[in-house]
Amino acid sequence: MTGTAATAGSVPWLVTGAGGMLGRDILAELASVPGTEVTGRTRSELDITDPGAVRAAVAAHRVVVNCAAWTDVDGAEADEAAATAVNGTAVRQLARACAEAGAVLLHVSTDYVLPGDGGRPYAEDAQTGPLNAYGRGKLLGERAVAELLPDTGYTVRTAWLYGTHGRSFVATMLELACRRATVDVVADQYGQPTSSSALARQLAALGRAALAGRAPAGVYHGTAAGATTWYGLAREVYRLGGLDPGRLRPVGSAAFPRPAVRPSYGVLGHGGWARAGLPCQPEWRDQLAAALDTPGFAERVAAARAAATALTPV
User: Fold this and answer.
1) Which residue from 43, 2, 49 is spatially nearest to 21, judged by alpha carbons?
2) How far apart are CA 230 and CA 59, in angstroms?
3) Where is the signal peptide (predicted)?
4) Residue 122: left if φ>0, alpha if ψ -120 to 50, beta else—which one?
5) 179 HSE (CA, 13 A, CB side)
């Protein structure tokens, strides 16, 4: 994947995992800012488990945004070693390469490093305690960044991410609206639906602040303001899409048994942004409304509306 051309005084950024949902959005965000030279590397172009390839890719870059990850949460239960090789060991190699190159690292992590059994938003320094293999691997990655890049390493935890590139809960709800008269949705897990494009803007701003020496290194929480359940999110998708939320039925997590345990409460606090002099993300409903107006989602909304006339709840 090619990047933008270098210009006088440009700042070279590297985005790993550039073919994924977030990677594509951060590439677009950076390319829109004058004076930013950005190179994207997809999974096929850069194997982040290869130390030599990682070192060569990082060289000469000022900022690295790591969007590369093993994202199959349930698959990690079946092959924790493979998941950890990407989410833990490879991140250590990437952090070491950034230390050698003198580059800032923005590493994208997850709320799954936390125990998820609280009742109030988790602060950035809250005690970790992952419930599943995916979270354990991601926590190893976080620790590597903190250890090897104490002054230039930034871990940004996110959750419930959706966007126009790739699969997401929001896209799935619109697809199911085309095929099913009623849809059961989990109503006992709480989180923060977050637009990939909103997170991309936040990552770009954090990287610039880091280069300027304004943002302290450490953990940040890159999620939307507010919180809801999967059922609450689905209802808002239907409402904004002009669909009948009455077609949705709330159920408990037990209705959808999965190999990996999910946290019941993954709501994150956002105090780190104020300390860096940067704004938090907009409220989740506002993000969702903006996302559904984009061409990628608007077409799916239109299809769901058209299909609704042929579906009658039973």
Assistant:
1) 43
2) 41
3) none
4) beta
5) 5
Segment holding 279, helix H or strand E: none
Cβ within 8 Å of residue 92, ≥6 positions away: 140, 141, 144, 148
Q: Is the predicted pLDDT of residue 285 greater than 70, yes or no? A: yes
SS3 of 7, please?
coil
- How many angstroms separate the CA atoms of 106 and 79, rounded? 26
Distance CA 310, CA 305 (A): 10
Predicted TM-score of the model (pTM): 0.94
Question: What letter represents residue 159's amino acid?
Answer: A
Across 45-63, average pLDDT: 95
Query: What domains can you pick out in the chain, each with its CATH number?
Result: 11-166+194-226+266-281 (3.40.50.720)
Q: 112, 134, 154, 162: which one is catalytic? A: 134
Is 230:236 a contact under the CB 8 Å cutoff?
no
* Whole-number Å distance between alpha carbons of 215 and 205: 10
